[in-house]
Amino acid sequence: MQLTDTLPTIVCALIGLAVGLIDGLLPKSNDRQTDSQQRWTAVFSLIGTGMVVILILLGRDLTSWVAIGAVVLGLLLGMIPPH
Predict the structure, then answer these.
(1) Which helix or strand (DSSP H or E) is residue 45 part of?
(2) Is residue 83 over pLDDT 90?
(3) Which among 20, 63, 21, 11 has a CA at the least distance from the CA of 45?
(4) Mind listing the pLDDT tens digit for each residue in 40-49?
């Protein structure tokens, strides 16, 4: 794997992890979210989905799977309740 393959994979993984983590930290029910949180939930979903679709269209299969896994991992980490 060359740097031109590794660098986009790492960047997309970090973006996916951040998107999933922030989305996982927000309340899940709409009645507990503020208007701003509802808008940001939609934005984060669009960013995550758009990133994966673009990667698939570019033929970056490994990078798209890594991004999907990072978003899921971020969601799971964000949904862990505090002690």
Answers:
(1) helix 35-57
(2) no
(3) 20
(4) 989 999 999 9
Residues 61-78 have pLDDT tens digits of 999 999 999 999 999 999
- CA distances (Å), origin 36, targets 39, 46, 65: 5, 15, 30
Q: Please state, as a whole number, how many other Cβ atoms lie within 10 Å of the Cβ of residue 62.
A: 12
The pair of structure tokens assigned to 4 is: 């031109």
Is this prediction's pTM over 0.90?
no
The one-character DSSP state at 30 is G
CA distance 83 to 80: 9
Cα–Cα distance for residue pair 28/51, rounded to 1 Å: 22
Return the structure tokens found at 61: 């299969």
